[in-house]
Amino acid sequence: MRILLVVNPRAGRGGAGRAARLATEALRRRGLGVRVTTTVPAVGELEATADAVVAVGGDGTVHHLLQRVAGSGLPLGLLPVGTGNDTARTLGVRVPRGGPGAMARAAEELAASLRGGRTRTVDLARADGRWYATILATGLDAAVARRARHMRFPPGSARYAAALAGRVRRLPAYTYRLEVDGRPWEFRGLLAAVGNGPVYGGGVRMCAGADLGDGLLDVAVVAPVSRRRLLRVAPRLYRGAHLSEPEVTVVRCRTVRIDAETPSGGWADGEPVGPLPLTVSAVPGALTVPLPPGAPAGLARLSR
Ligand SMILES: Nc1ncnc2c1ncn2[C@@H]1O[C@H](COP(=O)(O)OP(=O)(O)OP(=O)(O)O)[C@@H](O)[C@H]1O
Questions:
Q1: What is the spatial distance between Cα 72 and Cα 69, in angstroms, rounded to a whole number?
Q2: What's the EC number here (predicted)?
Q3: Could you give all domains of the chain from N- to C-terminal order, each with its CATH number?
């Protein structure tokens, strides 16, 4: 079995090189062939030279790889060394925290999953041809994603909270025009988030009910709120407990067209996707991921 590690030296706080060395050792010890690269190969080259590919980086690294592996059946493993690591959280992959021991454990787990050879498929979303795994942000959250991308401090997922704090002085209200499975829906909103998975922004569970195996998108919209109210509710976002608040509405659908005059357009997996309008569809089973050897039966349920 040939594994290609795609390493992003810019991810997180620069631990990607070390993580890649640990993963290489762990994989070779299990008899797997390993190649390491810092550039994402074209899809034909990937399929011809690798039996599985691993993203050693954060959500941006995974996002760039999704554009190559989605729909191909080529398994994508993760060694999450980014800032937010929301795709890893979504897929139940351990995010190494607490020094070298944690990184070594994550590398061993990854190698054991790939060696085991069991995989499952999960849904992806596609926004005007761009694949993503987590959530497409628009409105306030797109502005937060844009700001977080240009910040170097604080490290880790606290960066998104800091970016939000910098955006709450004047909260926007946009006129949104959605088509949800063809049905028009117009409202004034602070943001609208289109979730394939439940989480973005370093652990914010905006679309907490999103299921990677249901073939559906969870569209969470938030009505305009005061700064005071937002700051009060914000901590609940990390538990998904905001969903019962009166300003929050969630609808499930296969396809949504989303339009609003916002300055930041759409951002998915922490990356810019483009200006609105965007049409997003759920694509069932588009991503194949390795399954840990002791994975519970509940995960295998997602295999198609
Ligand atoms: N193949 C690629 N081509 C161009 N840019 C890339 C590629 N892979 C990653 N990047 C860029 O590198 C930057 C940092 O990578 P990444 O997003 O993986 O780490 P991070 O920002 O620390 O983590 P996270 O996204 O989890 O918060 C991102 O802006 C991303 O767009």
A1: 5
A2: 2.7.1.107
A3: 2-117 (3.40.50.10330), 130-284 (2.60.200.40)
C-beta of 203 in contact with ligand 1 (< 6 A): no
Cα four-point dihedral sign 86, 91, 92, 93 = negative
Structure confidence by residue, pLDDT tens digits, 108-141: 999 999 999 999 999 999 999 999 999 999 999 9
Answer whether 0.90 is exceeded by the pTM. yes
Q: Whose CA is nearest to atom 14 of ligand 1?
A: 11
At 231-259, the pLDDT tens digits run: 899 899 999 999 999 999 999 999 999 99
Rounded to the nearest angstrom, the distance between the alpha carbon of 60 and the centre of ligand 1 is 4
Centre of ligand 1 to C-alpha 168, Å, is 26
Q: Locate 134 and state its tokens.
A: 């987590």
The protein residue whose alpha carbon is closest to atom 18 in ligand 1 is: 58
For the Cβ of 13 lying below 6 angstroms from any atom of ligand 1, the answer is no
- Residue 216 CA to residue 198 CA, distance in Å, equals 12
Q: Is 270 a pocket residue for ligand 1 (Cβ < 6 Å)? A: yes
11 in ligand 1 pocket by Cβ < 6 Å?
Answer: yes
Query: ipTM of the assembly?
Result: 0.94
Q: Which of 78, 131, 134, 181 is nearest to 286 (CA)?
A: 131
Band of residue 297 on the pLDDT scale cut at 50, 70, 90? low
178 CA to middle of ligand 1, Å?
Answer: 29
Token pair of 266 as six digits: 């759409």
| Rounded distance from Cα 159 to ligand 1 centre (Å) | 15
State the distance from the centre of ligand 1 to the C-alpha of 14, rounded, in angstroms. Answer: 12
